[in-house]
Design a protein that fits this description.
Rieske Iron-sulfur Protein, 19 helices, 36 strands, 23% strand, disordered N terminus
Length: 691
Amino acid sequence: MNSLSNDVLAQPISRRTLFKLFGIGAIGGVVGYSRFSKPQPTVHQPDKLDLPRSLHQSKTVVVVGGGLAGLACAYELSQRGFAVTLLERSPQLGGKIASWQIEAAGETFMMEHGFHGFFPQYYNLKSIVAELEIGDNFRSLNSYAVLYRGEKYKPEVFRPSHSAFPWNIVDLAIASPNRLKWGINLTKWEHWQVFRAITGFQTQKTFQRLDNLSVAEWVQHNFPHGLYDLYFLPFAKSSLNAPDLMSVGELMQFFHFYFFGNPEGLAFNGTRHDMGTSLVQPIASAIAQNGGKIITGANVTAIQAQNGKIASLSYSQGEGEDTPFWVTAVRSQESQVASRGGFTHNTDPPTDTSDKPVPAADRNKKEISYYGAADRMYAVSPENKEAISLTCTHQGCTVQLAEDGKFHCPCHGAVYDRQGKVLKGPAQKDLPRYQVVQQQEDRLQIVGVGLENRPYGSRESRNNQLPITHYSSPIQADYYVFATDVPGIQQLFTLVAGEVNQQVRSQVEKLSIADPFAVCRFWFDRSFDWEHSNFTSLSGYQLTDSITLYHRIQEPYIDWANKTGGSVVELHAYCYKEKEFPNQQALLTTFEQELYEIVPQLQQAKMLHRELVNQKNFSGYPPNSYVDRPETSTEIPNLIFAGDWVKMPFPCGLMERAVSSGLLAANEILHREGLQRRSLFSVNPEGMLKI
């Protein structure tokens, strides 16, 4: 353990804290923290005046990004009289909760990016659900378990509770079959310090003291290792960040929101159908009913800044580019990290000059040049005559060249040949092809194949059914909300022409992406006995972090299982190391091995289908990142941020963090226009043993 972690753990506990510690039950009863009195959510930043709720004059807002953050922002503003335009790059809305059709086991199903749980303390998300009257789209899972690999620990089971701190800890200790294995030694000051840190959350002080450490560093020595195995490790990874790359301050915020500051317990709801049907579509319908304009498949192409503000924004929509445009080569000494897929395209030729046969993948890399940036990448043929777009035609992820010489989509498993032709779905359309018009040093000018001499929208183009890209006129708006994921916001700032605040640019550039995320859903010809919860966290496995039994949760899968006697299970890897699993085959092999260990009965079953989802665009919260994290309001006067990567003023996590950030962005605009802000809620923002 480094000196910083020693300093943190060695800090003395004050006399005041000791009195608090030993009198905790009495204090809790006095302030109303009892099992008989449920604490109410905390209101964030309530308006003290009764202000108008709706605009009396026209105001326009462009929201870029159709995930939960963008949808929440557009939803609120469209209700208040704003003219909202929502732009989403993918064909489907929803971002990380998007759904799409697949064919599996002879039928059509909706696939998504893994299972999503709705916790009781998701107050702001629940308020939208209540307003839309879609509560019936959700069902309670009643409880969920944490299983540790092997026989070292017995299963932990979490259920709803109305006991706030300290009684939730007492209840947990009484119910836990592993309480004697937590490893807590109250004679060690270090263990008291751990207890104080996790129960005394204060946003600013906690991050000041603990943001410089990773979770892995913090727990190296003098830490209750049973607590780490059973709670810290699974909870840290469920934040979609690995312990070696996650700030302790962020983990404390996560713990406080989900447990120590939470009076609701840890059981949660799931959706009766896929997320798109259950949540995304109702929100989108409400936006449209309120006059909002939603445009999918929209690629932002230019952002013009003037006088320190965003002056206009342009986008394209379509499958090809029908006017020539320039792309710049990826520098040979760098690896280009793809925005959507997040995987590395190495442009360096192989350095091995021996007589050993050169693998096909290395030959392919040597032959192909890469141009573009972020999520607009192009692979150019050796002769520099033709290029193909590396943007998957399914959902916009960036495909990568695999060892088999084909282009694979890291998100949903589509496969294309070297010419961009679809070999395997879910993609239905080939990768767009381009002709190289001219070359200037490290730049190429390219145009959609067959379109270099055809004017935009010409009859000849239409009659030959060539790919057409529709370009918008520059959109001028009163406000712009950037609500994309981290790669998306970084890509947007590469498009900004003109001077904008350099501090904001720097903050965006410093944002991090977490390790990759993967899920694999399996269809089998038979069911199996399962004594645990239908969603169960797993600890101790090389890859798998949880398992979901879809044939017991979502109605289309329940109906299929009742009809066929089969089962549908999904394994999740919240944050895996690319070096350990360098390709999709490695993921699939390990997922299958671990599934048969987790559910031995399936070894005798016939696998009917499997579906892999693999992506690297989740927000990272590494040590020392909190201070530079951008807030909702920016130094660019008419630009607002939303997304789970912004610095939040109250504890929240995952979907609630995204929704809350979108509503905060809406509130910022409402406040500037003199309108009543939406009431936002969270758990008690501070713990009892204040640091």
